[in-house]
Amino acid sequence: MKLTLYTDYSLRVLIYLASKPKEELSTIKEIADSYKISKNHLMKVTYELGKMGMIETIRGRYGGIKLAKDPSEINIGKLVRRTEEDFELVECFGKHNSCVITPVCGLKNALAKALNAYLAVLDGYTLADIVTNPMEYRMLFQEQLRPDTDH
Amino acid sequence: MKLTLYTDYSLRVLIYLASKPKEELSTIKEIADSYKISKNHLMKVTYELGKMGMIETIRGRYGGIKLAKDPSEINIGKLVRRTEEDFELVECFGKHNSCVITPVCGLKNALAKALNAYLAVLDGYTLADIVTNPMEYRMLFQEQLRPDTDH
């Protein structure tokens, strides 16, 4: 049971931006370097977060990205519902289902209820609840970006 | 968010066996043919289910497998906890974690609570709750096994 890399990276980008002082711009390169993850992956992720209205892109030489809303207005459950696309827990949740017992099986219902309980917990969290300590995050990020460290 | 194929197939084997009249033996080939899935995959799955004490293997020419317990004694949450091995929702749940914000991140806690809620729902189900209608399952399986069908 694993969230997609797309969900994972979306959350990381939002956490990074929420750790910054309000209105301060960040670059994708800086976020990629901070987490030591691929910049290419983050390009797609930030594009989609922009389409969802969660981040804003300022173009130009001194451009960058920032949160489009206050962290308290970004709900984690809502985000995960969007970034996970389909919640294909087992084959019959997806489009290409060939499981023969689908018409009578009681498992799908049980798994759907479990998934709802999972998402209901995440609905109780906003980005502000995740990043209550922005300074602590910032210190860890800055450590990654310092040129003299040999991480 | 997907359960492993191992969990999926473990559930399918148990459902198959629970659909049979008590004490009737099934073969792995028959289960594989019924679901149209690989017999090799099921070999490993049935071996592990045997180790967990959920199914029993009778050796010999007329041998086969059957449930080692009543379906009402096989808990779905307990099974999924065992077959999923690790619940690596995101990187920091696993052994090879290199996410830099791990020491301060509030997300892991939120995801762990969500996972607990997910499993708590499954703890409320036994195999008997999933297979309340064994005859209906049997009809679907028999249809797959009939030699004159061109499935």
Written account of the structure:
2 copies of one chain form a homodimer. With 151 residues, chain A is mainly α. Chain A has 7 helices and 2 strands. A two-stranded antiparallel ribbon of chain A has the order 1-2. The longest helix of chain A has 17 residues, at 107-123. Chains A and B meet through helix 1, helix 5 and helix 7 of A and helix 1, helix 5 and helix 7 of B.
Summary, kept brief:
With 151 residues, chain A is mostly helical. Helices cover 51% and strands 5% of the residues of chain A.
For the largest beta sheet of chain A, what order do the strands appear in spatially? 1-2
What multimeric state do the chains show?
homodimer
Of all protein chain pairs, which has the greatest interface, and how many residues does each chain bring to it? A-B, 50 and 50 residues
Low-confidence stretches of chain A: none
Report the sheet-strand fraction of chain A. 5-15%
Indicate the percent of residues in helices of chain A.
Answer: 40-55%
Secondary-structure-based class of chain A equals mainly alpha
Overall geometric form of chain A: elongated
Q: Which H/E pattern describes the elements of chain A? A: HHHEEHHHH
Give the beta-strand count of chain A: 2
Rg calc of chain A:
18 Å
Tell me the major beta sheet of chain A.
2 strands, antiparallel
Q: Report mean pLDDT of chain A, rounded to a whole number.
A: 91
The helix tally of chain A amounts to 7
Termini Cα gap of chain A: 30 Å
